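dumping this here so i dont lose it again. seq + smiles for molybdenum atom
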Amino acid sequence: MRSLIEIGGDGLNREAPLEALTGFITPVEQFFVRSHAAPEAFDPGAWRLEVDGLVNRPLTLSLADLEAFPRHEITCVLECAGNGRAHFRPRVPGIAWHHGAVGNATWEGVRVGEVLNAAGLDAAARHLHLFGGDLSSHEPPYERSIELAKAMDDCLIAFTMNGAPLTCDHGAPARLVVPGWTGNHWMKWLTRISAQRRALAGFYMDEAYRVPAAGTSGGSATGLTKPVTSLRVKSAITTHPRRAKVGERVTIRGFAFSGAPDVALVELTEDDGASWSPAELDPRHSPYAWRLWSYLWTPLAAGRVTIAVRATDVGGATQPRHASWNPGGYEYDAWPSVEIDVAD
Ligand SMILES: Nc1nc2c(c(=O)[nH]1)N[C@H]1C(S)=C(S)[C@@H](COP(=O)(O)O)O[C@H]1N2
Ligand SMILES: [Mo]
């Protein structure tokens, strides 16, 4: 089993080698970690979640209190908004992720909506402010807010990942799960949620995790930006031979996902996009989970062949040839490609 690769930068940042991401469920040992500050372990017995702000009955919940709410489970992708950043040209500052800051896991927990309703959510609330237990160990503090509509719709306060209690690296004892949205929304070591009229202000809302609101390559004329939210349609190649022989069939494999929330089509090209052939999609899928795919390829001529892949989601969006450059290096979604040397 290939282990995670330390990627450097502030905090704890590890990504998976793409060739390890071949399963429908990503084991915790191969699941990337992105922590702005070195994570601390929390005593689950002493841990409390504060629920306050625009609520009629502010709550202080122990883990046992939280676990008494109805349990829900979802299998979905967690991807860092900066996954692929190392491949932008010109280069951009920030953690230089290759393509392994992504994984697909089963998360179990309770609905944010049910917890907020138990606290008597006020109709005036529009945003949910999120605070984690690593706040004091980082400057500026990693704190964020999320639109209440998304939080109420399908977000979970999760305590398990792939059937086992969350590890400290992944936010134990409880973290937010935001199906179909980029990882920056998935607050770890959750200690307080606060219903508010307005979005939270601060570096991680107003400066980081934003892309140009208009224009396609590098900026809007107006300088307006918007937050990264829904995952873009994306694919990756995890398995391929480096060498092949004319007339001998080989298998190419990978995964694809979208915030749409499902993938409709994965295609491969060996002629730089002039023609495409569909890959076979694995039957396992659920909304916001990734879809494994495989493609049987028989080379017809000797030489070095570049094979590229693109995915199309159920909303009709297709992965672009080139990613849209932006100063934060977010949403890298260009066609992935590999080279195979074909001999006679
Ligand atoms: N409290 C806290 N939550 C956090 C972070 C953090 O640094 N502190 N990093 C966020 C980012 S940017 C990502 S991509 C995901 C990564 O989750 P993982 O480490 O479980 O893969 O956690 C998010 N939640
Ligand atoms: Mo991230």
